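quick q for whoever's on today - can somebody do inverse folding on this one?? i tried earlier but teh output was garbage lol. tokens:
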């Protein structure tokens, strides 16, 4: 069974091939179209077409609008929008976003080196559906920092000109809601250096509780957690 579904993303229509046939999936992928595989555990399914699928479902009815949009965005290289607040659009980074300056907060070069960031976008987002996301100020359309979730840890970095304006609190509150409602997480952790009073204060404002060990505290690390 092969179904072609039309999905509108950012005002443009894209075809998505939903199929349990390896040949149909392979042909659609070769043509540059988004694909979703239907995999029957009893009948199985194998081949290059299924291997190319980022998303496999058990039946055609499971291909809802959100899944189809994800398939299109992943295939077309369009960023997934995480949340929108009063002042911010929180979305995945793209190739067009400016690079950060080198700093201890650039993710070991991930966000200050173009090749490393391209690899991050291609791997982290595609296979984990989370990571550190761009914080875009809606009024200026400028990327003012990043925030997100990596391995259950909530992290953020606001660029210097935009600090002390409440952006971190605004972004993190939206991301906590996304973690609970969309990612199905039930616990998040914040880790920060004990000398970073601003991050410790933010964690408490977000409802996190200090939970780290004495050994971690002695090493200068504060650990907070929150059950969602």
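ok took a stab at it. sequence:
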């Amino acid at each position: 069974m092969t179904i072609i579904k039309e999905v509108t993303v950012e005002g443009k229509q894209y075809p998505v091939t939903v199929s349990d046939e390896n040949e149909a999936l392979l042909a659609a992928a070769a043509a540059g179209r988004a694909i979703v595989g239907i995999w029957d555990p009893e009948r199985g399914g194998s081949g290059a077409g299924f291997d190319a699928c980022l998303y496999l479902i058990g039946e055609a009815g499971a291909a809802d609008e959100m899944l189809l949009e994800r398939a299109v965005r992943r295939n077309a290289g369009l960023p997934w929008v995480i949340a929108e607040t009063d002042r911010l659009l929180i979305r995945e980074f793209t190739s067009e976003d400016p690079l950060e300056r080198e700093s201890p907060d650039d993710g070991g070069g991930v966000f200050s080196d173009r090749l490393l960031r391209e690899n991050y976008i291609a791997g982290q987002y595609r296979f984990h559906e989370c990571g550190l996301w761009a914080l875009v100020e809606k009024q200026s359309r400028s990327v003012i920092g990043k925030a997100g979730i990596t391995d259950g840890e909530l992290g953020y970095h606001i660029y210097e000109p935009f600090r002390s304006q409440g952006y971190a609190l605004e972004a993190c509150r939206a991301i906590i809601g996304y973690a609970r409602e969309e990612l199905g997480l039930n616990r998040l952790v914040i880790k920060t250096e004990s000398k970073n009073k601003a991050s410790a204060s933010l964690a408490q404002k977000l409802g996190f509780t200090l939970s780290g060990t004495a050994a971690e505290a002695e090493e200068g690390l504060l650990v907070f957690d929150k059950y969602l």
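fwiw The two ends are 40 Å apart (CA to CA). also The chain has a mean pLDDT of 92. so keep that in mind when u check it
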